[in-house]
Design brief:
The complex is a heterodimer.
Chain A (H helix, E strand, L loop, with lengths): L1 H7 L10 E2 L9 H7 L14 H18 L8 E2 L15 E7 L2 E8 L2 E7 L12 H10 L9 E2 L2 E2 L2 H14 L3 E6 L5 H14 L2 E4 L6 H11 L6 E2 L6 E5 L10 H10 L11 E6 L11 E4 L2 H15 L12 H13 L4 E5 L4 H13 L7 E2 L10 H13 L2 E7 L3 H4 L3 H10 L2 E6 L11 E4 L8 E4 L4 E5 L12 H9 L5 H8 L5 H7 L1 E3 L14 H8 L7 E6 L13 H5 L7 E2 L4 E3 L1 H7 L5 E6 L4 E8 L7 E5 L23 E3 L1 E3 L3 E11 L3 E2 L14 E3 H6 L26 E6 L8 H9 L7 H5 L8 E7 L6 E7 L18 E3 L5 E3 L9 H5 L6 E2 L27 E2 L5 H13 L12 H5 L6 E5 L6 H6 L4 E2 L11 E4 L1 E3 L2
Helix pairs in contact in A: 4-22, 6-15, 7-11, 9-10, 9-11, 11-18, 12-14
Chain B lengths: L1 H24 L18 H7 L4 H4 L14 H8 L7 H12 L5 E2 L12 H7 L4 H5 L16 H10 L9 H10 L25
Classes of the chains: A alpha/beta, B mainly alpha.
């Protein structure tokens, strides 16, 4: 479809208004076109299609009909509870507060099974947001691939046998005992680990595959605390980021997004923030910047030192001539906002981080926008892990306990780690599922998923969030903390242990709220001296020759521990819009000189490793840079993760800390074409003002700027709809939407949207009800990016409605465009007539047969079968529930009672607003009167109920 | 001519046949009057009729949520741990609780997955009596499905009570608003409840 559209759009890459969407937009590839109409898709109709067969089947159908009259419904059984829990009422959801990866969440359970994750709005840190991983985590809980029983030397046994054998082995072990965990912010887990360390004389090492070790090490140098900095983006007037993807994969993305997006509001009392971003490849955060500069890692270092020289008169550095203007501009802005600016770098390099700390200190940002705080938490130190692997290889480690780790997959020298692991007498792994490491470990103990566990974690230096179990362990697993307590001979359950550790708290209230402020923030005193030696070290950093291979962290997939989660795999990457794969990202200019196209297979090598993978031509990539995502290429894993993509961890190198962009090599074209499951070629803007934008200065002069195009309204040929009762509407603020895509997974989880798999996405049959259109503008090496959530617009004059032959899609009295599944016969006329292309057709009966995965389905929403059209229902089940609750409480529905799924999960501030547009006092009504309000394709007079607000860039 | 007549007869015969099929097919799956044997010989007449036990003592979900709820087996034993403990039927209950092997009741009232029905909406908000849909349960020794429980049957009731188009219900809302403080239980309609006739009120 899209390719046909592209044909008419002409061959000019820069279109009428300068927007474009895809570097290969102009190419009409017949091969791609043929994918649209595959030949093998109706295999299940194996009957040979002929007139004779048709009559046969027809005859059978007619004669079978009267027979059905004699058939009664098969006997269905109904099982009540034997003993009902007091708080469970079948059909009524219970909500419990918990924590997922440092994000305080609320878990919705139905009849005792978790079905949906939402952000905990009581948290002062995340303010009710949740990211894509948290939204998707419910499927990881039900993952059938999870381990069912403990194993010793590869054979399964009972827990008590495991306990006795493990305790015996640990007591007999000779040599050093080491316990390795990821970074731990849980005070109670750390307390338990201390007992372990004491009993076995063990050392505790933290290891993160995607490490931020350098940040903590730099903080130790500049502030004497081995801790990650905390940020307050809401106070920052100017943000300068050197490749730090703080809205995506940098850590604390939910809190960062909430604070940052508040300042993307032009009406914020402190004004709009200004965001500079310098990076070699496009990140989610970079795509939101006001000024984004595509620069190589070498140039990035040069600019960083230039900024340092700009704010520190004792340091001299002359910047490359082409970057001089940029640096001057940034330095002036930073200096003008002293104490209200923020400089960040995403590089896991101590020298860089020390320089960044120095710049922030000189600008007076400490205590305002950035905080170095004291902490009890333990953070990863890369050198510790490398030294451990050396000691393992030397044979001095006798006992090794790993918790939730997979170094055999994600350690940069996995072979060396594996060799060392084989020399360890008592190697132990606590893990959710079998992985590369568990295959080589002697004692493997399955641990509970977060939602089956008790724990706590510091989500900021002052806020504690409790993790409480919301379901009994599904697979006979055990909390690793309880296994540890067994080993140490600590009496009781971990719940008791946790509770006694927080005896000062009102436990019921803490569990109810999920979060509690436990301490004030204790800032660490600065001891930054002269850092010129660190700056000199940056200057002297050697760079290799050839292409710079960047191993980057992909949004959602991150270090690869949740690679078996189908929601995350099918989530289109916010930038490349690719699903189900990793790939080599190259720049358009590199592609042009080398004759590369997206989907071409390339071989990437750094001299030691060779790797074949598809390439994607990605605007905003630096010419000499090729980027490959981590987290793919599992050789051991569930059906989703196994053998998907290539493992890029070998491109990581170690230089005091793990270096993710220090590899250099070459790329060659194999000539083969690979399937890339991208959703991005679906939708082109075709020169229309679908996205409207303006600049902050123009907005201040005229709030209607960028939004003057209001097409004249045409006449109606149908009578207008009656509008009594509520009239639902939505507004989406394009200024604060970061494109993070958490809403997509939230929508899928809420509405039982199926996962269709790589081939079907490649066939353009993805089922997401909500998509994020991503548009580019300007220079393809340094484009401006727009993210636009696109969902059913719930038109008052809906074009889909009047072409449906069976009235399966009709207007409701409260203004929603309803899709009635049981009426739909699947003509797909509606989808063809929809100007927004938001309707999704069930080409197959998508698989919901997995006995565990089924448990995640929302029982209030039907599961659609083959041949049915579906689309955004504006979470009609939530609307109905909200209305019913109000009625049961004998009151009128209040504004804000109903939150739709995308709105609830959005980590950004006031980006999606839903409410009654007929109520003049509702929040949505205020938005509709905004000068920035517009609807997409106004000229069609379809009168959408979904409104957009013009995007503002601070330029 | 003969051929034409033959075709006409065939056409009418086919038409009549199809009409018959359609009329018959419309009754498919409704199971009105369905009264299956249950694994425990439980009498609603005894409990709800003679003993006048409130329906919601056992079906406690009816005013709270979507499902009226089949009572948990342990709930039966609230009384039957003392009463008629030697009856073979009661022993089945005790056995179920002791062994953990639950009683499999035969489901009588069905509605399909593509329709959403909420008991609380009707019992709690609208104040509809249980008997209105389920018949005089208190007179049934063996429970059976009294009504058709089909969409047309639902809509009919909604229309009779002015909670579906074509009635303009805005007026009724205003009446309630002017005469009463707040909305009483059993009120026909609440402002903003929208129309009872929207497809997506039940189908989503």
């Amino acid at each position: 479809m899209s390719n046909l559209d592209n044909k008419s759009s002409g061959t000019n890459e820069t279109q009428v208004d300068g927007y474009w969407q895809d570097v290969e937009q102009k190419v009409l590839d017949p091969k791609v076109l043929s994918q649209e109409f595959g030949t093998d898709e109706f295999d299940s109709f194996s009957v040979k299609k002929s007139r004779r067969n048709f009559l046969k089947i027809m005859g059978f159908s007619v004669s079978a009909m009267p027979l059905t009259g004699c058939i009664k419904i098969p006997v269905k059984k109904a099982l009540p509870y034997l003993n009902k829990q007091d708080d469970v009422i079948p059909g009524v959801a219970n909500w419990y507060a918990s924590t997922f990866e440092g994000t305080p969440v609320l878990v919705k359970t139905r009849e005792g099974r978790p079905i949906k994750i939402e952000g905990n709005d009581k948290s002062k840190t995340t303010m009710g947001g949740a990211n894509a991983r948290a939204q998707a985590s419910v499927l990881s809980l039900y993952d059938s691939y999870r381990l069912r029983s403990p194993m010793v030397n590869g054979s399964s046994l009972e827990w008590d046998q495991f306990d006795s054998q493990f305790a015996k082995a640990m007591s007999e072990t000779t040599g050093e005992v080491v316990i390795v965990t990821p970074s731990i912010t849980s005070p109670t887990e750390l307390k338990l680990l201390k007992s372990f360390i004491k009993k076995y004389g063990a050392t505790h090492i933290a290891y993160d595959a995607v490490s931020r070790s350098a940040f903590a090490e730099a903080n130790e140098i500049t502030h004497g605390v081995f801790n990650q900095s905390e940020y307050n983006f809401e106070q920052a007037d100017v943000v300068l980021s050197f490749g730090a993807d703080f809205l995506g994969t940098f850590g604390n993305d939910v809190a960062n997004t909430r604070q940052y997006s508040k300042r993307r509001n032009a009406k914020h009392p402190q004004g709009m923030n200004k965001h500079y971003h310098i990076e070699p490849m496009m990140t989610l955060t970079g795509s939101n910047a006001d000024y984004r500069y595509t620069r190589s890692a070498v140039e990035e270092r040069d600019i960083l030192l230039g900024v340092l020289a700009g704010v520190d008169s004792s340091f001299k550095h002359s910047v490359q001539s082409e970057n001089k203007d940029i640096v001057t501009k940034m330095v002036n802005d930073l200096k003008a906002s002293s104490g209200k600016s923020l400089v960040l770098s995403g590089h896991n390099d101590v020298n860089t981080q020390v320089v960044v700390n120095k710049i922030n200190a000189l600008l007076g940002n400490y205590g305002q926008t950035v905080f170095a705080t004291k902490t009890e938490s333990v953070f990863a130190k890369d050198a510790d892990m490398v030294s451990l692997v050396d000691r393992m290889n030397a044979g001095s480690v006798g006992g090794l306990v790993m918790i939730g780790l997979n170094p055999s997959y994600n350690y940069f020298q996995a072979d060396k780690f594996n060799a060392g692991l084989n020399k360890v007498k008592v190697s132990t792994l606590f893990t959710l599922a079998e992985n590369e490491t568990s295959k080589l470990t002697k004692f493997v103990a399955p641990m509970n998923h977060t939602y089956e566990s008790w724990s706590d974690s510091m989500v900021s230096s002052s806020e504690l969030s409790i993790t409480q179990p919301v379901i009994q362990p599904l697979f006979g697993t055990r909390m690793w903390t309880e296994s540890m307590m067994n080993l140490l001979g600590v009496e009781g359950t971990f719940h008791d242990y946790l509770k006694s550790n927080w005896s000062s708290l009102d436990w019921s209230k803490t569990l109810h709220d999920g979060v509690v402020i436990v301490s004030g923030m204790t800032s660490a005193a600065s001891k930054i001296g002269n850092i010129n030696s660190y700056a000199a070290a940056i200057k002297n950093t050697k760079s290799g020759t050839g292409l710079n291979i960047v191993a980057y962290t992909k949004y959602g997939i991150e270090n690869g521990d949740m690679a078996n989660n189908p929601f995350l795999q099918e989530l289109p990457n916010p930038i490349t819009k690719a699903t189900w794969d990793n790939y080599a990202m190259v720049s358009p200019s590199f592609a042009k000189t080398n004759g590369l196209k997206s989907g071409d297979e390339v071989e990437l090598t750094d001299g030691k490793i060779k790797m074949k993978l598809p390439c994607i031509v990605q605007p905003g990539t630096e010419t000499n840079t090729v980027a490959v995502a981590l987290g793919y290429g599992h050789t051991v894993g569930g059906k989703v993760a196994k053998n998907l993509g290539r493992n890029a961890y070998p491109f990581v190198s170690f230089d005091n800390t793990f270096n993710y962009c220090g590899s250099y090599g070459a790329l060659s074209i194999t000539g083969k074409k690979l399937v890339l499951a991208q959703t991005q070629t679906h939708h082109s803007m075709e020169g229309r003002d679908i996205v409207r934008e303006t600049t902050f200065s123009a907005f201040q002069e005229n709030p209607k700027s960028g939004n003057q195009v209001h097409k004249p309204k045409t006449v109606h040929i149908y009578p207008a709809h009656k509008k009594d009762g509520h009239q639902w509407g939505m507004a989406i603020n394009l200024s604060s939407c970061t494109g993070c895509s958490a809403c997509i997974i939230s929508c899928s989880a809420e509405n039982n949207v199926p996962v269709v798999g790589k081939q079907e996405v490649a066939n353009k049959r993805d089922m997401h009800w909500l998509r994020l259109d991503r548009y580019y503008k300007g220079d393809e090496n340094q484009p401006e990016v727009m993210h636009m959530p696109m969902l059913c617009q719930h038109c008052d004059n809906a074009p889909c409605e009047n072409v449906c032959p069976v009235l399966a899609t009709v207007q409701s009295s409260d203004g929603l465009n309803q899709q009635i599944y049981n009426r739909c016969v699947g003509t797909r006329y509606c989808a063809n007539n929809c100007p927004y292309k938001v309707r999704r057709f069930n080409w197959f009966n998508y698989d919901h047969s997995d006995a565990h995965e089924r448990l995640a389905l929302n029982p209030d929403v039907g599961v659609r079968s083959r041949g049915i059209m579906e689309k955004c229902s504006m979470c009609i089940q939530r609307i109905q529930e909200g209305k019913l609750t109000a009625k049961r409480e004998r009151r009128e529905l209040a504004d804000g009672d109903i939150k739709v799924a995308c709105q609830q999960s959005c980590p950004s501030d006031n980006t999606i607003i839903f409410g009654d547009i007929k109520d003049p006092n509702s929040e949505i009504s205020q938005y509709l009167e905004d000068d920035r309000q517009y609807t997409v394709l106004e000229e069609l007079n379809v009168q959408p109920r979904v409104n957009y607000l013009t995007k503002i860039r601070n330029k | 001519m003969k051929k034409l007549l033959g075709a006409l007869v065939a056409f009418i015969a086919l038409g009549a046949f199809s009409t018959f099929i359609v009329v018959q097919a419309r009754h498919l799956g409704f199971n009105q009057g369905y009264a299956p044997d249950q694994p425990v010989a439980f009498s609603h007449k005894k409990h709800a009729g003679n003993l006048e036990i409130d329906c919601q003592y056992c079906h406690f979900g009816a005013d709270k949520g979507r499902h009226a709820v089949i009572p948990p087996t342990a709930l039966c034993l609230n009384c039957h741990s003392m009463i008629k403990t030697q009856s073979p039927e009661i022993k089945k209950l005790q056995n179920a609780v002791d062994s953990g092997e639950n009683i499999q009741w035969v489901k009588v009232n069905h509605y399909p997955d593509f329709a959403y029905f909420n008991h609380a909406q009707h019992v709690n908000v609208a104040g509809v009596s249980c008997q209105k849909c389920h018949g005089a349960v208190e007179t049934m020794d063996i429970y059976h499905q009294k009504e058709k429980l089909a969409m047309g049957w639902c809509i009919e009731c909604h229309r009779e009570n002015g909670i579906a188009p074509p009635d303009d219900h805005a007026e009724i809302v205003e009446q309630y608003k002017s005469t009463q403080e707040g909305y009483p239980s059993g009120a026909k309609l609440y402002k903003g409840s929208g129309s009872g006739g929207d497809c997506a009120k039940c189908h989503y």
